[in-house]
Amino acid sequence: MAFFEGNRMTAGYNNGPDIIHSCSINVDRGEIVAILGPNGAGKSTVMRALLGLLKLKKGNVKINNKDISNLTPQDRVKKGISFVPQTKNVFAELTVRENLEVGAFLRDDNINKVIGEIYELFPILSEKKNQIVGELSGGQRQQVALGRALMIKPSVLMLDEPTAGVSPIVMEELFQHIIKIKKTNVAVIMVEQNAKQALKISDRGYVLVTGENKFEGLGKDLLNDPEVRRSFLGA
Questions:
Q1: CATH code for the domain in which residue 219 is found
Q2: pTM of the predicted structure, to 2 decimals
Q3: Does the pLDDT of residue 191 top 60, yes or no?
């Protein structure tokens, strides 16, 4: 039994056809799980279903063995689920420090300690704390987005294409930060197009095809699976 799980989820948009079909995803604390697959495979739909942005027709979502399928996205955040979208994930007109403060909207205690922990995790944010986020590089903005998501001290961190649009060097740096987050006992679940690199840092992975679980297993096993390599990793 995993800490955070979507079980046999079936869902679609409005009155349209189902996009995901009996799809199951789970992640434990202190673990990185990657969701991979071609465009149109249903990866983003799975994320929306887990977040409560999409109502399930079948299946359920649980955290710590408690069914949260009927909770709103806001109430799921209160349960410890934090999300970093691919785009529009920072307030570009605010400073780094102000972005982190916005991320603490659920906290009613002194946030300076938590901000200090974020600065330890992302030293560049301490260096740039008074700088307007819109002036930062793409990789630095992604660190702001990650730091802001961590301000509620989540147990689950969901990432949608965290390395989209950055250079290979910045991608490697961001993945190293994600590993550091995992080591704080957070359950990390991410959708990624950079499949090879994602599997290298992931404990486990899922490959979706037309909304269904096609492959799943340890990251290193999927990386070395001949069919997965041929079909999805360009090898």
A1: 3.40.50.300
A2: 0.92
A3: yes
